[in-house]
Amino acid sequence: MAMVNIRDLRKVYEGGFEALKGVSLDIEEGEILALLGPNGAGKTTLISTICGITLPSSGRIEVGGHDVVDDYRQARNLIGLVPQEINLEPFEKVLNTVRFSRGLFGKPRDDAFVEQVLRKLSLWEKRDSRVMELSGGMKRRVLIAKALSHEPRVLFLDEPTAGVDVELRRDMWETVEELKRDGVTIILTTHYIEEAEEIADRIGVINGGEILLVEEKEALMARMGQKELHVELTDALDSVPESLSSYDLKLSEDGQTLIYTFDAKADRTGIGRLMAAMPEAGLKVCDVNTTQSSLEDIFVGLVHGQDKTEEEQVA
Amino acid sequence: MNWQAVVSIYRFEMARFFRTLAQSFISPVLSTSLYFVVFGTAIGSRIAEVEGVSYGAFIVPGLIMLSVMTQALSNASFGIYFPKFIGTIFELLSAPVNFLEIVLGYVGAAATKALFIGVVILATSALFVDLSIAHPLAMILFLVLTCISFSLFGFIIGIWAKNFEQLQLIPLLVVTPLVFLGGAFYSIAMLPPVWQIITKFNPVVYLISGFRWSFFGVADVPIVTSLLAIGGFTALCLGAIWWIFKTGWRIRQ
Prior knowledge:
The complex is a heterodimer of chains A (315) and B (253).
Chain A: E1 4-12, E2 18-27, E3 32-36, H1 43-51, E4 58-63, E5 66-67, H2 72-77, E6 79-82, H3 94-104, H4 111-120, H5 136-148, E7 154-158, H6 166-181, E8 185-190, H7 193-199, E9 202-207, E10 210-216, H8 217-224, E11 226-233, E12 250-251, E13 257-263, H9 271-280, E14 285-292, H10 295-314
Helix pairs in contact in A: 3-5
Chain B: H1 3-19, H2 21-43, E1 49-50, E2 53-54, H3 55-86, H4 89-94, H5 99-128, H6 136-160, H7 164-180, H8 193-199, H9 203-216, H10 223-247
Helix pairs in contact in B: 1-5, 2-3, 2-5, 3-5, 3-6, 3-7, 3-9, 5-6, 6-9, 6-10, 9-10
């Protein structure tokens, strides 16, 4: 049974804008899912609808087996949300605002636990400061502390690293790893691909209100990732030798490296034949390495592919 | 019921009040004293008695009602509007609380603040005039019901308002005139006959009249009518809030 279970979720805003067009998604307990998508893809709407900030137009969402509309109490008890915008009561003290969140979620006061959360996020020293006196990064830490204060089993991080410095980023990923060890399910949205690549178990790509794909990170990269073989030559070339033209090789600018693009998952990569053909063409090889294309390439390829299809449909 | 959440909201709202306690305390004391200087001493000295009560004492219930109504309105409307304005409402919407719990927390806090100010004004008044309360239980009932009903009304305004102008609009344009024309400073019997009839359409008249009755045993309108008025107004506000709850109007898209 998935921790979060979304079926045919549609969300049409009052103005008629369809932000989600029939999203179905299963999120397993204890995994880190990164939702990748450009601005306006529907990431925040999806999270807001799961968390109860907006109501679904149709479809069904269950969290921990509880329907988010009918059994909202049980469902929301499990959920912590760190929103994208820094929304905090400016005049309140850090400690009080975190205690408030815990109480709001029906949890009895537990000063030791709140202290632990604040310490983990390097906020303990600032506990008596008013929120308005904090820097932007510190405010984001407060938002995370508020979400963690009620011990959620599912944590949503909406663009958690937008405008965040290196230190906070590191602390945040440490916290996320720790939560994952405790079995907390984590869903984060981002449009920074490196972020998804760094910490996610699975990656979902969303664009135009539709989930384009959800896959294990490694599988995704292996399946979709094209690999490049870089062959360094002893002597520089002016052009690719005629006899190797069938391999569709690229020559680096300095003429020292031949680049061969291949599909690592294909039955025949063609590497063996190419390597055999090189001495025949009179080339001396001094080094060889392969690189895998990044998620970014995959992502751009997917989103562009979709945009193109849509354009064609319109045309 | 998530009582923990109700208490949390209540305490969070009360914290705002305690942060500005000096302001919350001094301003009603000062304005009440001013009213006594102007109406009680300067003007009141030329008015002997109203319905057997000295004018200084006569205006006390009206003064309390005036402050309690405006304070309840502004506290409750601001209390729920502010989270909408700064965006912290997301937390309320994503928390395992229902609308009733939210209303209890916010309205409870606003009503408490209004009640506090009402008591402060009553105490301040006692420094200026001899006060006796003929029906203390009725007095408490009227005061508490007014605090609650106007806090409910304020909550509705806070949910409805899309900007600060709208937040001020109804309190300024509707409630303040109704309260001033509601017999806070005069008896309805002192008005020309036509105005006596027009005044009967002002709901605040019934509230102030009933409250004054609890002090002096004299009233412009029958006490039962006053009780029906305050009860009806509370029921109306509760009905509106129930509807907001059902539809998610202006809170949840």
